[in-house]
């Protein structure tokens, strides 16, 4: 299969390596010319592409059967350009005759907003808590509007990503011994890089369409996660100050039941806190 991966960061590199290993012809894009040489070992073709450039995006799509949008904004003020403008550029290119039969987009469970730790699933209406969440929700709407019989559009709403080089201990070690605002009751949802790769392959192989939450089986409250982490790695405990408040833009217990019912299983159903950076 001919596959174009638009955006080749942490996730994009991992799935490019996997798909190419299994014989697929992989095109990857980057916005940074200096990364071309680095990415050439992962792909059959590397293109420098801005998401809001229809000519460049069109070139990346030529002859492709699957398009994966694996986008990542380097700064919080770049969400609109990175996510929404890319989706708006891509959509009209897929509206007519095209070789592309499937689009997969790795989004975020942030679109659910602050649900005060309550369970949510794919039937829960989105309720973004800030502008960037709204941008992510609108990106989904733009892409899903292009779904049709001969073009399957699949949205994977990812949890927090961890894995090699992004171990949970590495992410949270700087917080050891500090005092955090609130009670730590906010819920976090995580997904290991290996499970993201496996889910992307599952979505490709089964030609999934629609929205699926891609998180592991066990959401954890922040306090529980950090207490376990500090104990496991002999780190100074983290304290909490309930008199100070910090409203998180997403606080929901995310269900992955729909993806499980489709036949997918996480290799890491529980968040691995024992991985050492």
TrEMBL record:
- One family from Pfam that matches here is Epimerase
Coiled-coil annotated residue ranges, if any: none
**Single GO MF descriptor:** aldehyde dehydrogenase (NAD+) activity
Give the superkingdom in one word.
Answer: Bacteria
Q: Which residues form the NAD-dependent epimerase/dehydratase domain?
A: 5-213
Spell out the GO cellular component terms annotated for this protein, sorted alphabetically and separated by semicolons: cytoplasm
UniProt cross-references to InterPro entries, sorted A to Z: Epimerase_deHydtase, NAD(P)-bd_dom_sf, NAD(P)-dependent_oxidoreduct
Q: What is this protein called?
A: SDR family oxidoreductase
Organism lineage string: Bacteria, Bacillati, Cyanobacteriota, Cyanophyceae, Oscillatoriophycideae
């Amino acid at each position: 299969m001919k596959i174009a991966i638009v955006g080749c960061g942490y996730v994009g590199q991992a799935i490019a390596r996997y798909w190419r290993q299994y014989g697929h012809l992989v095109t990857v894009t980057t916005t940074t010319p200096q990364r071309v040489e680095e990415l050439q070992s992962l792909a059959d073709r590397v293109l420098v592409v801005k998401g809001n450039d229809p000519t460049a995006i069109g070139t990346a799509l030529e002859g492709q059967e699957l398009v994966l949008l694996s986008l990542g904004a380097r700064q919080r003020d770049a969400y609109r350009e990175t996510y929404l403008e890319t989706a708006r550029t891509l959509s009209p290119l897929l509206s007519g005759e095209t070789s592309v039969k499937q689009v997969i987009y790795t989004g975020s469970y942030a679109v659910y907003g602050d649900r005060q730790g309550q369970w949510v699933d794919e039937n829960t209406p989105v309720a973004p808590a800030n502008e960037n969440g709204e941008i992510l929700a609108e990106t989904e709407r733009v892409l899903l509007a292009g779904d049709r019989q001969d073009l399957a559009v699949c949205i994977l709403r990812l949890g927090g990503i961890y894995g090699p080089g992004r171990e949970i201990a590495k992410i949270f070690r700087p917080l050891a011994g500090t005092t955090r605002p609130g009670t730590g009751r906010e819920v976090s949802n995580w997904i290991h890089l290996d499970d993201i790769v496996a889910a992307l392959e599952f979505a490709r192989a089964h030609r999934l369409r629609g929205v699926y939450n891609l998180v592991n089986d066990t959401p954890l409250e922040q306090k529980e996660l950090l207490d376990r982490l500090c104990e496991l790695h002999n780190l100074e405990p983290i304290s909490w100050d309930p008199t100070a408040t910090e409203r998180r833009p997403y606080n929901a217990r995310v269900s992955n039941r729909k993806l499980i019912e489709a036949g997918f299983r996480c290799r890491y159903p529980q968040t691995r806190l024992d991985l050492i950076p």
